[in-house]
Design goal:
30% helix, 6 strands, binds iron/sulfur cluster, alpha+beta, 4-stranded antiparallel β-sheet
Length: 223
């Protein structure tokens, strides 16, 4: 069944699919949703190269297109899981309707599932860095009660001595402290400073994107 789901998600357009088991369900009153399917869609290199000292309109457009594709993939994937007798809860690629807007937190951080699935690691930039495509991806998740087995070991960290994103971030959001498993985001990355900087680009996506830390990360091989 796991392989069938994976092949189906890939046929719908997923570039990466990973599986993990969570400590507990993030959904209130649905404690059985403890398995996560992580889906990633890659952003085009040529478009990411248009990010210079600020985001480009082309980047914002592809960012939204990737989110829409992910939402379609997870919607259809959840339907397939339900048709096979299990519960499935798609989590949108961009969770701008979190219950607690002031803390910049989502219902379920896609990075948590992605990390536990072994598809990559969390960088100093706070971005999920996949071993295959670096951070030039967008993520979404399906939570389910269908038993799943992670296929890859967890990767603790891969940033080493690199400081590219810390140096490049115009908002001072990246502290340079390497992420360690179990750390809270605020311990190494300021979502508030990142969000405040994005407001400087109101002419691009009403101030909801930046992308400079994606552009400079050596794992993305964009230079
Ligand atoms: S998106 Fe921009 S402001 Fe936010 S951390 Fe990355 S470089 Fe800094
Ligand atoms: S730019 Fe360097 S430090 Fe930042 S996330 Fe990428 S590898 Fe890690």
């Amino acid at each position: 069944m796991q392989n069938l789901i994976k092949q189906n998600l890939i046929s719908l357009g997923a570039d990466l699919v990973g599986f993990s088991k969570l400590d507990s369900s993030p959904i209130l009153d649905q404690p059985n949703l403890v398995y996560a399917i992580t889906v990633a869609v890659k952003l085009p290199d040529a478009v990411l190269k248009t990010i210079m000292e600020r985001p480009s309109q082309q980047y914002f457009h592809e960012y939204r297109t990737a989110n829409a594709l992910l939402d379609r993939i997870t919607f259809l994937g959840a339907r397939l899981i339900e048709n096979n007798g299990y519960s499935a809860f798609p989590i949108a690629a961009s969770q701008s309707t979190s219950d607690d807007k002031s803390s910049y937190k989502a219902i379920f951080p896609h990075k948590t599932g992605a990390l536990l699935s072994g598809l990559g690691f969390i960088g100093k930039s706070g971005l999920f860095i996949s071993t295959k495509f670096g951070s030039k991806i967008r993520l979404a998740t399906i939570l389910t009660d269908m038993p799943l087995n992670p296929e890859l070991p967890i990767i603790k960290n891969g940033c080493g001595d690199c400081k590219e994103c810390e140096r490049a971030c115009p908002g001072g959001a990246i502290s340079g402290i390497p992420y360690e498993i179990g750390m809270k985001r605020d311990d190494f990355f300021s979502a508030e400073k990142c969000s405040r900087n994005m407001k400087n680009y109101k002419d691009v996506g009403r101030g909801a994107v930046c992308g400079i830390c994606i552009k400079v990360c050596p794992y993305n091989r964009l230079k």
